[in-house]
């Protein structure tokens, strides 16, 4: 049997116990490996190999946020319910025009400040006539949601 292709995401975390608790709640599964300073989650949907590496978190660098795109609003709301039941703080954005697309989304933030969104796109391009070449400063047209 061929092995499934997965994205691997390795996050530095300041506190492994707290981060394992957060990601256990987020994905609804236990880590497949949990050792001193290290935990691994093998997530089936979406296919993700997520590892947490304990150490000093000095700077998150250029990372803006992380996200999981789902098929519809019902799945966004199901994720929100699962997060709330696990005690995670959520922020909703429904019918929001973000990144030039109409979306429904729910946000959560991990213990180290990494923001995650679970979202669905309802309209792929809300400004189809706008092109990157039309403005000398692309940031003039970028919505605030894309710059948080």
How would you sum up this structure in a few lines?
The protein is of the alpha/beta class. Helices cover 17% and strands 36% of the residues. It has 2 domains: 1-56, Roll (2,3-Dihydroxybiphenyl 1,2-Dioxygenase, domain 1); 65-148, 2,3-Dihydroxybiphenyl 1,2-Dioxygenase, domain 1, CATH 3.10.180.10.
How would you describe the overall organization of this protein?
- With 148 residues, the chain is an alpha/beta fold.
- The model has no long low-confidence stretch (mean pLDDT 89).
- β3 (38-43) and β4 form a beta hairpin.
- The protein is 17% helix and 36% strand.
- The protein has a 4-stranded mixed β-sheet with strand order 1-4-3-2, covered by helices on one side. Strands 5-8-7-6 form a 4-stranded mixed β-sheet, with helices on one face.
- The protein has 2 domains: 1-56, 2,3-Dihydroxybiphenyl 1,2-Dioxygenase, domain 1 (Roll), CATH 3.10.180.10; 65-148, 2,3-Dihydroxybiphenyl 1,2-Dioxygenase, domain 1.
| Total strand segments | 8
As for the number of domains, it is: 2
Average predicted confidence as pLDDT? 89
- CATH class (first level) name of the largest domain: Alpha Beta
Q: What class do helices, strands and sheet pairing give?
A: alpha/beta
Radius of gyration: 17 Å
Label the overall shape: globular
Order of helices and strands: EHEEEEHEEE
Spatial ordering of strands, largest sheet: 1-4-3-2
Full CATH superfamily name of the largest domain: 2,3-Dihydroxybiphenyl 1,2-Dioxygenase, domain 1
The rounded distance between the terminal residues' Cα atoms is 42 Å
Sheet having the most strands: 4 strands, mixed
CATH fold-level topology of the largest domain? 2,3-Dihydroxybiphenyl 1,2-Dioxygenase, domain 1
Q: What is the count of helical runs? A: 2
User: Can you tell me the residue ranges where pLDDT is under 50 for at least 5 consecutive residues?
Assistant: none
Which architecture of the largest domain per CATH?
Roll
Percent range of helical residues: 10-25%
| Strand content range | 35-45%
